[in-house]
Amino acid sequence: MLLAALVLVPFLGSLLAAVMPADARNRESWLAIAVAAGGLLMAGSLYPDVAAGQVLREELAWLPAQGLYFVLRVDGLAWVFTMLVLAIGLLVVVYARYYMSPADPVPRFFAFLLAFMGSMLGVVLSGNLVQLVVFWELTSLTSFLLIGYWHHRADARRGARMAFTVTATGGLCLLAGVLVLGNIVGSYDLDVVLAAGERVRADELYLPALVLIALGALTKSAQFPFHFWLPHAMAAPTPVSSYLHSATMVKAGVFLLVRLWPALAGTPEWTWIIGGAGVCTLMIGAFIAIFQHDLKGLLAYSTISHLGLITTLIGIGTPLAIVAAIFHILNHATFKASLFMAAGIIDHETGTRDMRVLGGLRHALPVTATLAIVASAAMAGVPLLNGFLSKEMFFAETLLVGGDTNWWMSYAALAMGVFGVAYSLRFISIFFGAPSEALPRAPHEPPRWMRSPVELLVLTCLVVGVLPGLSIEPILHVAAVATLGPAMPEYDLAVWHGFNIPLLMSTLALAGGVLLYGLLRRYLQLKERDTVPLVHRLNGAQIYENTMLRLTRGAGWLLKHLGTLRLQPQLLLLMLALLGVPLLLAGAPPAWSDSPRQGFDPLFTAIWVIGGGCAIAAAWVAKYHRLAALALVGGTGVVTAATFLWLSAPDLALTQLMVETVTTVLLLLGLRWLPPRIKAGAGQPAPGRLAWLRRSRDLLVATAGGLAMAALTYAVLVHPASDTIADFFLQNALTGGGGSNVVNVLLVDFRSFDTLGEITVLAIVALTVYALLRRFRPAPESVAIPAQQRHDVDPASAQTPAEQAGSGYLLVAGIYLRLLLPFMGVVAVYFFMRGHNLPGGGFVAGLIFSVAILVQYMLAGTVWVESHLQLRPHRWLGFGLVLACATGLGAWLFGHPFLTTHTAHVDWPLVGELHLPSAFVFDLGVFVVVVGTTMLMLVALAHQSLRAHRLPGDEAARAAPPVSGRRTL
Amino acid sequence: MTTTTLLSAAVYFALGCVVLGMVLCALRLAVGPTAQDRVLALDTLWMCTMLLALLLGIAHGSLVYFEAALLIALLGFVSTIALAKFLMRGEVIE
């Protein structure tokens, strides 16, 4: 469980960090330090096993049916990266404690940072490719959140969006690539994939897989042409830049390439795609870095260039190049993280990062200056520092790859070295010269613990640089052996290899860099230039913005031409699709066959004629006589209930009855706010031919739709009943579910998971309706009080609406229904209690209860009911869902699967033996949710009427003049 | 003629009467002419359904139907009240 804990603990820490108070800077830091240090200890304890060449695995079933397992595995490479992530993470959280201002909401910062740590460890330790992609996307997400941490700043929001769009798109490509790769190999397990290198490279799908995976890795590691997001990500707080955007997250891309090296590398395609991108990146990044004025901008482009160097090494793909790549990943992480932290200290102390302003800082910040100078020397590749070693290995590799004739890669490498020295000089130039007068703040040395992470990292640079064999060699060996296996080359990490061409290249780069920097300062006004010479047109960010703009415009165009906001065309299309699509999808219709017919019953037919007649009449009058249509629809509902009764389904009839009632009330509530019919005046022309055509078309479609439904029903009815699952439920309801009402047992026991989903949907719908109604503003013509309340025959029309509502219309019905409320409650309880065995259950009982409350609303008015009864339907919703879920979870306590029912038999005094299935509690949850849903929606609609109460009497009267005469409906 | 056949014949006759009542209600519901007529027709339609439930209960010899009848009797008029309130006040819940 050690590996699982390693990944899980940062996420738990993230949760814990998120709930701490906003000013708990110290507690947050201690928590993060504890998580990182604990992780380091755990991972460190694995060293003996890993050094012995073992691969440790932990497996959890994820989707075993699909052959997916949640696999965590650690070998040498994963172990080294784990240590890197945790060690830099530890230093960064110490640093962040002092960097973050007390005004920043730190819980969010540390929560995101720890979540990132967990995701990154997940990427590194994943033993399953699909799982790796999931964690990969999580790192993109946390990076997005961290870049946008100061979300009040426009550049932070823009940078976050850009970084996320690029890396997440890459992540999608990676997912596709991984799926192709898994398809080739037949497994997503990393060990299996790594062992199948020969088969992968020979497969015809190798190239698509390689391209897709490379897209994922190159976007993540900010490689050309996707490098532009990284400089914009510098809007993040500096600890984030130091951690995510130099030391770890951007290394995920190169990590993945190294990880998959045994499976994918060794082909010309690999070298051209990976190596090509790397060479372009290292040149462009290093060149642009020289011309930056922002400290972090310079470091960002330098990071891009160093990542390009690593990518080039991986692209070269020889075992020795891979060793050099891993070595440079580690070296770069140490010196670049320390440089970012130093830049953060300078920003923190002086208030600016602009190199045109900064100068002479060695006087005010002597220690920081020394540290930064040593780290930039390592970045430039000065001997006796770690950067020198890996860069020299890089030079040696570029020499080898071209052989004796092809030197272009060596030239590129040399140019990159020269540029690297130049921008390193540019960086350290801020420490020399006369102290700047224009600084926003007078700088002082930072607090001791803010500087100590930098000190430690710079010390590492020195130790590795001077004594590579004693310090880094064993660790590098572990990582390289795990990647290369039998192909492990002989190599020597010495500082001095004698006079050879790589040393000459290093010397040339150093001398050339100094010379270039001097020339640029002298002749190109390096400090004043605003544009990068030669490549300033190559602006990836601009291309990205243009593309996004075009996409947005294109989407708008498509929406305008293919979509519509009008309901009529949507309905028409829906109906046509309903008519057409099944015909296309279904094959030949099943053979008609006779099933035994029921005898013809004139009475039943008469009832159906009533129902059908009501439905047709409702459709006929629906357009202009809404109330009449509603009454007619009510007639159809009655007939449906009567049909259920006739066909011996009283429980369905009960439900139908209640649904019918609630629907009528709901529609009437809505009817109040529909605009009135526009009277056809003399000025309006008669409907033209076009309207006539349109109406004929609609009639045709509607008739066809109705006939199709009828035909479908008829087909189902005459089709002989085959063995259905109904038989299973009929046989097992009592024995398996402990109830003789099959429908209820089906709902709350056999298919209770479906029911849980349904009541969740119900709750979501209710909340959505509630949210929509909160923003509801009626049409101007229906704002006024209804005509009935302004009728001058009625003396009450002189009262305000609130007074009218309180003074008792329908007085007789109001009084006896108030008295009937308890009886309705009893009936609801009765139907609920016996639901498991006889018709009834939580759903019907919930509806009965809601109707009982609704009646009170109708007769006594909202104000009266709510002053006597605090309902709070939201809480009903929440409580009901919790109850249903808790019942399901309760089964886990006894070691059964989710939602297993248990029936308890209780001896109740006076009542006798009572069996109490746990489904009963589940049903109670359904009941509560149904009550909450119905009440929430209807009451929200009813509350709209209260707006009339808020209008003062005069104003309400002015809003609508009094009416006289008989009103026709 | 035994009691059983007599009972079933009586029940069938009663069903016929109730259905006839329903047909007449439906006619009133469709014809109107005023909204009040329609509301009354709908209310009577519910009443007929309640009677239908009772008769079917006798016919099938099942008690469950009587509960359905009880529920209709207790709550069947709620839509009538809602419609009446709407006609009288212009809104259902004030």
Automatic annotation (TrEMBL), chain A:
GO molecular function, one term: antiporter activity
GO-annotated biological processes: monoatomic ion transport
InterPro entries in alphabetical order: CPA3_Na-H_Antiporter_A (IPR050616), MnhB (IPR007182), MrpA_C/MbhD (IPR025383), MrpA_C/MbhE (IPR046806), ND/Mrp_TM (IPR001750), Proton_antipo_N (IPR001516)
Alphabetical keyword list: Antiport, Cell membrane, Ion transport, Membrane, Transmembrane, Transmembrane helix, Transport
NADH-Ubiquinone oxidoreductase (complex I) chain 5 N-terminal domain span: 62-110
MrpA C-terminal/MbhE domain: residues covered: 693-790
Na+/H+ antiporter MnhB subunit-related protein domain ranges (all copies): 815-935
TM regions (residue ranges): 77-97, 109-127, 133-150, 162-185, 242-264, 270-291, 367-388, 408-435, 456-479, 499-520, 571-591, 603-622, 629-647, 653-674, 699-717, 755-773, 809-831, 843-865, 877-899, 919-942
NADH:quinone oxidoreductase/Mrp antiporter transmembrane domain location: 126-409
Primary site of residence: membrane
GO cellular component: a single term: plasma membrane
Topology in the lipid bilayer: Multi-pass membrane protein
Compartments reported by the entry: Cell membrane; Membrane
MrpA C-terminal/MbhD domain residues: 615-675
Protein name: Monovalent cation/H+ antiporter subunit A
Lineage: Bacteria, Pseudomonadati, Pseudomonadota, Betaproteobacteria, Rhodocyclales
Gene that produces this protein: phaA
Automatic annotation (TrEMBL), chain B:
GO cellular component, one term: plasma membrane
This protein's UniProt keywords: Antiport, Cell membrane, Ion transport, Membrane, Transmembrane, Transmembrane helix, Transport
One MF term in the entry's GO annotations: sodium:proton antiporter activity
Topological category with respect to the lipid bilayer: Multi-pass membrane protein
Parts of the chain that traverse the membrane: 6-27, 39-59, 65-88
Compartmental location: Cell membrane
Stated family: Belongs to the CPA3 antiporters (TC 2.A.63) subunit F family.
Protein name, as recorded: K+/H+ antiporter subunit F
